[in-house]
Amino acid sequence: MQHAGGAAPDIGPATPDIGAAAPDIGAATLKRVTRGLMPLFCLMYLIAYIDRQNVSYAKLEMVGALGLTEAAYGLGASLFFLGYFLFEAPANLILVRVGAGVWFSRIMGTWGLVTIALGFTQSPAMFFVLRFLLGVTEAGFFPGVLYVLTLWYPHAHRARMIGAFMMASALANAVGSVVGGALLDLNGLLGLAGWQWVFVATGAPAVLLAPYVLWRLPSHPEQARFLTPDQKAWLARTLAAEPRQQAEGSPWRALLDIRVMALAGLYVGLPLGAYGLSYWLPTLVKGFGASNIQNGFINVIPWVFVALALWWVPRHAARNGVSAWHISGPMLLGAVTLVLSVVVPGAAPKFALLCVAAAAIFAGQPVFWSVPQKLLAGPHAAAGIAAINSVGNLGGFVAQNVVPRIYDATGSQLAPMLFLAGCLLIAGVSIRVLVPRLAGW
């Protein structure tokens, strides 16, 4: 089978029954895998990302309801990432043991219940505890999917599959923008405030979907009802033939792998920019004079740009050869447009630049995640990917604390954007220099 971006790996002598049809069976197998897995993964991520985004809309009313400052609310929101950081690697290693269906079902059910509980927050302390627990319960989902993709797809296809998977986050932000604004306007319905409806209505879908995930999602290709025996055999041979480097011994040793630590440090800038922007975007748009519902609809537009970028960049990399510029180039563009979005006059130009910035910040992530998938395999991949994601997502913790603190201290919208842009610039340059050495590009 011919893979985008290069020749297919040698999978050995053809067997009489399927050898002559290897290209056909390979294409058919990957199509079935994609139809069998990706819609469910995308739906799960859509729900997860709406769940992450809801705090930025609830903030518009919850700050006043609980008597919080912007900085205190940012601290509470960011505690999600601390819980996520602490439990990410253990969660992914449990996934290896119990299987995807069981573990993803548990993750979704518990994070949905904690999100619903956030709708009944009575005090700042309760808000802080529940946000930390939300990170604990969701830990392992995103890196778990990235690990599971290594069990189902040859390496040449993974960046595009990650891009397709992450497009669900863009759709989630678009849907969440409309839903978040609309839910705020339900203030008073059934005795609940608008910010309470934001949490209750976005937590319920995860709880409802959890049993279906348990029933529908196979843990390994051998258990897939949607693949024939010949297709399972082709996939097993193809994946086994791919060269991979991995640590010896306990999968926990992957956490000390210098390549894993380097990638984790490089990744920090991506979620820092992404969460800094998504957390702050509704507040910026409200500053244009938009109502709650207008704010929601306007915020759909940047995530359409993000979806297009997540679709285009991995395909460009596959057609023209993967390079570090597919990661660092969009980050540098994001840094420039973030600053310009504050400097240029006029609401329309500001918003247009924010749309470009959003797309640029997310665009390089699918290609970035293909690097650890290439370097590690098996439980070492599960531990290594989780470590990179958990350390990197501390960027979200930093963003949701530092951005509002800078704003509170300066009263300026430019200062927070300069901070985010500076972090993206440093990370982008570092990725351009170091990733080619790590990945062998």
Proportion in β-strands: under 5%
H/E topology pattern:
HHHHHHHHHHHHHHHHHH
Which term fits the overall shape?
globular
Structural class: mainly alpha
Count up the helices. 18
Q: Strand count, sense and closure of the main sheet?
A: none
Cα separation of the termini? 22 Å
Low-confidence stretches: 1-21
Domain Major facilitator superfamily (MFS) profile: 37-439
Keywords: Membrane, Transmembrane, Transmembrane helix, Transport
Membrane topology: Multi-pass membrane protein
Organism: Sorangium atrum
Give an overview in words.
The protein is mainly α and 441 residues long. The chain contains 18 helices and no strands. It is globular, with a radius of gyration of 22 Å. The protein starts with 21 loop residues before the first helix and ends with a helix. Mean pLDDT is 84; it is low at 1-21.
Question: What's this, in brief?
Answer:
The protein has 441 residues and is mainly alpha-helical. Helices cover 79% and strands 0% of the residues. Helix 1 runs antiparallel to helix 5, helix 6 packs across helix 15 and helix 17 packs antiparallel against helix 18.
